[in-house]
């Protein structure tokens, strides 16, 4: 006897899978379809591929999820490397080859993420949504695509901009090795204007950085230093065996142009023979091996400051923004076109340029002190947040004002050193006042310079030396055991009231040609600290 199964009506044979509103939204009510649309968009935002796993092509979803988890793994590894070897991570972005690979990967990720959103829109099936929700879902999808694919694509664009800037500014040479545990760089600032013969570096500063700790010192060489020495292996010794010693026409400021015009053949294969000769002169003068240089065109320096949003300093005295030059010496000017006041200041590019270059009514060494201050302030402001927020404008400015022989492939490790340097106080030395006598740059004692440089690098802060070899010492304190008791000193007379030092008063003195009073009032304008 056979038992037959009960007949099932056609209505009850509906496949169970069609009741799943996530995969088959046509069977769901309108509110559920709307909720489903936003859930799928959220899944694609947070976990690309998951929307396809639950509602579409599972094979595509699994591939996208593998890529997503792979990206997360790379991000976790990058965070770990940033704690263990930050220089290696920076090198990925600064090395020409790894940065190109990174750009290609980011472009593919941006396109892939955009495709996943478009595929998600197909899964949503906008035709099934209520008329009022179709536009809303489409707008949200476009916004999410801009947020995700747009951001990834823009990151690729910024890295490519940085890569082009690095290739434009820095060299493709071999890596530099530290010398005695330090990297020594020559930083020069100069003009090549229409009124000047060649480029003359008016700012000459050596930056010496400990290759391990990042502890940095800066040594300013005055532009009027005479008899600059050359390193033992310098080809310039064949021209000047006893140093750059032809008198006033051989101040170190003139060396760059002279070598560029007359002795470029002594530096075959060097793209900038003048800079190479300046490195030899700075190294021989200070007793250091200079491994690389950075040359900043001061005519475009203001653009870099503006790109950073200004530079913050605490100025010690009034600094004139000089008027037009009245002769070829560069010292005689029309009355100032403006003044930079003492106190806390945020200087724009043009103001910072004048603050670093002004030498009217003061000695050359006041300008050197201000240049070192601007350099220290820039280093202080170059934090990652500032650089990232103004990345493109900084790079665009940099390609117009800088050139260097520092290897591009090694730039990442130097960026890491720069960040380490911010943890230490920046020590400074000037081969002139206040660290040496005013005549020292005319009759320098290079043994004394070498000793002071080594003391500075070793972390000591020696007192200024006496006589022609250095600056005058501070007055000695009296011997308490032999000094006779002093009679009570009479109360000092109240100083006679004088005019308040204001911009208007200074401008009036300038227009009257009272140079002596201006020299007295501006004597402290080299004093400056980073803001």
TrEMBL record:
Q: List residues of the Cell envelope-related transcriptional attenuator domain.
A: 200-382
Region annotated Disordered, chain positions? 1-22, 459-502
Mark out the compositionally biased spans (Pro residues). 487-498
Specify the superkingdom.
Answer: Bacteria
UniProt lists compositionally biased (Low complexity) regions at 462-486
Which N-terminal residues, if any, form the signal peptide? none
Which residue intervals are annotated with compositional bias (Polar residues) in the record? 1-12
The protein's matches in Pfam families, at most eight in alphabetical order, are given as: LytR_cpsA_psr (PF03816)
Transmembrane residue ranges = 37-56, 63-84, 96-118, 139-159
The alphabetical list of record keywords is: Membrane, Transmembrane, Transmembrane helix
Spell out the InterPro entries in the cross-references.
LytR/CpsA/Psr_CW_biosynth, LytR_CpsA_psr
What is the similarity comment for this entry? Belongs to the LytR/CpsA/Psr (LCP) family.
- In Swiss-Prot or TrEMBL terms, this protein is called LCP family protein
Q: What is the lineage of its organism?
A: Bacteria, Bacillati, Actinomycetota, Actinomycetes, Micrococcales
């Amino acid at each position: 006897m056979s038992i037959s199964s009960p007949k099932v009506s056609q209505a009850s044979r509906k496949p169970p899978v069609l009741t799943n509103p996530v995969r088959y939204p046509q069977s769901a009510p309108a509110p559920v379809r709307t909720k489903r649309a936003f859930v799928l968009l959220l899944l694609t935002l947070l976990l690309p591929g998951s929307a396809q796993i639950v509602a579409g092509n599972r094979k595509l979803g699994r591939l996208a999820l593998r890529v997503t988890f792979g990206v997360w793994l790379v991000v976790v590894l990058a965070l770990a490397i940033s704690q263990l070897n930050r220089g290696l991570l920076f090198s990925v972005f600064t090395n020409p080859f790894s940065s190109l690979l990174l750009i290609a990967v980011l472009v593919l990720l941006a396109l892939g993420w955009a495709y996943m959103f478009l595929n998600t829109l197909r899964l949503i099936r906008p035709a099934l949504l209520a008329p009022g929700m179709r536009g809303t879902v489409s707008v949200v999808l476009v916004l999410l695509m801009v947020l995700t694919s747009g951001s990834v694509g823009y990151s690729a664009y910024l890295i490519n901009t940085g890569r082009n800037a690095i290739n434009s500014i820095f060299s493709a040479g071999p890596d530099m090795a530290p010398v005695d545990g330090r990297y020594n760089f020559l930083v020069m600032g100069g003009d090549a204007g229409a009124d000047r013969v060649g480029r003359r570096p008016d700012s000459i500063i050596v930056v010496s950085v400990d290759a391990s700790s990042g502890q940095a010192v800066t040594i300013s060489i005055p532009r009027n230093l005479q008899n600059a020495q050359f390193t033992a292996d310098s080809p310039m010794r064949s021209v000047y065996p006893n140093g750059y010693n032809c008198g006033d026409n051989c101040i170190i400021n003139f060396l760059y142009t002279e070598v560029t015009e007359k002795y470029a053949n002594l530096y075959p294969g060097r793209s900038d023979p003048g800079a190479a000769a300046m490195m030899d002169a700075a190294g021989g003068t200070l007793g250091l091996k200079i491994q690389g240089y950075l040359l900043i065109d001061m005519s475009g320096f203001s653009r870099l400051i503006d790109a950073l949003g200004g530079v913050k300093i605490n100025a010690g005295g009034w600094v004139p923004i000089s008027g037009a030059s009245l002769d070829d010496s560069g010292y005689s000017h029309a009355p100032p076109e403006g003044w930079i006041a003492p106190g806390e200041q945020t200087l724009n590019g043009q103001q910072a340029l004048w603050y670093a270059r002004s030498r009217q009514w003061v000695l050359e060494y006041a300008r050197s002190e201000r240049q070192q201050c601007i350099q220290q302030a820039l280093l202080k402001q170059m934090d990652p947040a500032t650089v990232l927020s103004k990345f493109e404008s900084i790079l665009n400015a940099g390609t117009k004002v800088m050139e260097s022989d520092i290897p591009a492939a090694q730039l990442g490790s130097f960026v890491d050193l720069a960040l380490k340097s911010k943890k230490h106080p920046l020590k400074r030395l000037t081969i002139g006042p206040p660290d040496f006598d005013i005549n020292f740059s005319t009759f320098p004692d290079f043994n004394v310079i070498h000793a002071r440089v080594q003391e500075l690098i070793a972390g000591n802060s020696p007192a200024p030396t006496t006589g022609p070899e250095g600056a005058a010492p501070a007055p000695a304190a009296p011997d308490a055991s032999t000094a006779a008791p002093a009679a009570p000193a009479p109360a000092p007379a109240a100083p006679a009231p004088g005019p308040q030092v204001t911009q208007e008063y200074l401008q009036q003195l300038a227009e009257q040609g009272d140079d002596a009073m201006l020299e007295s009032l501006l004597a402290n304008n080299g004093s400056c600290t980073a803001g």
